[in-house]
């Protein structure tokens, strides 16, 4: 860990766990071409299984690294990946375009989706400012959580290798 970087432990959280139903939500879903309101249940109905990735603010080093890492993975063809972040739709669109991101991002500026999932991170020293705690939920066809990872400390790195080792995600 770089000098001056301290691990910060997050308080315990009550987030959806494996076997529980993932909360549904509707927010603007952003691609490099447009955005429109969409719901998680719509994505699940269309794609079957969705990996929902909660990530910190666009453009930060962690977000850039994580999305680069996610794009370098060979996910099973029946798993869609979607992000949830606090940025406005136009900022998500710029982030997608400039980073060449293949995945759409839900815009959740009020951090309400993160609140429903129990993964809110209040930023130190900034009253009333929060972002999602890094987290990933693999949501199955009936919105059942098949896999859940939620950061317990900052700065974490999601367990990309562990997630990819899940037989349900690895490309066969």
What does this molecule look like?
- This protein has 172 residues and is an alpha+beta fold.
- It is 24% helix and 27% strand.
- The termini are far apart.
- Strand 4, helix 2 (61-71) and strand 5 (79-85) form a beta-alpha-beta unit.
- It has helices at 40-47, 61-71, 89-99, 112-117, 160-165, and strands spanning 8-9, 26-30, 35-39, 49-54, 79-85, 105-107, 120-122, 130-132, 135-139, 145-150, 153-154.
- It is built from five helices and eleven strands; from the N terminus they run E-E-E-H-E-H-E-H-E-H-E-E-E-E-E-H.
Spatial order of strands in the largest sheet: 3-2-6-5-4-9-10
Structural class: alpha+beta
| Beta-strand content | 25-35%
Per DSSP E runs of 2 or more residues, the count of β-strands stands at: 11
Distance between the first and last residues' Cα: 34 Å
State the helix count. 5
Helical content class: 10-25%
Mean pLDDT over the full residue set: 84
Radius of gyration: 15 Å
Any low-confidence stretches, pLDDT <50, length ≥5? Answer: none
**Major sheet, described briefly?**
7 strands, mixed
The shape is globular
| N-to-C order of helices and strands | EEEHEHEHEHEEEEEH
């Amino acid at each position: 860990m770089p000098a001056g970087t301290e691990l910060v432990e997050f308080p315990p959280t009550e987030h959806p766990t494996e076997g529980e139903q993932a909360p549904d939500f509707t927010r603007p879903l952003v691609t490099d071409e447009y955005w429109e309101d969409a719901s998680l249940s719509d994505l699940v109905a269309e794609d079957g299984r969705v990996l929902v990735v909660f990530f910190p603010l666009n453009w930060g080093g962690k977000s850039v690294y994580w999305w680069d890492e996610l794009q370098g993975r060979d996910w099973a063809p029946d798993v869609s990946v979607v992000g949830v972040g606090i940025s406005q739709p136009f900022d998500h669109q710029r982030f997608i375009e400039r980073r060449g991101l293949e995945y759409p991002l839900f815009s959740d500026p009020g951090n309400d989706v993160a609140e429903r999932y129990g993964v809110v991170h209040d930023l130190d020293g900034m009253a009333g400012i929060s972002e999602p705690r890094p987290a990933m939920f693999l949501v199955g066809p009936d919105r059942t959580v098949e896999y859940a990872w939620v950061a317990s400390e900052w700065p974490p790195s999601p367990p990309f290798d562990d997630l990819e080792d899940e037989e349900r995600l690895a490309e066969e």
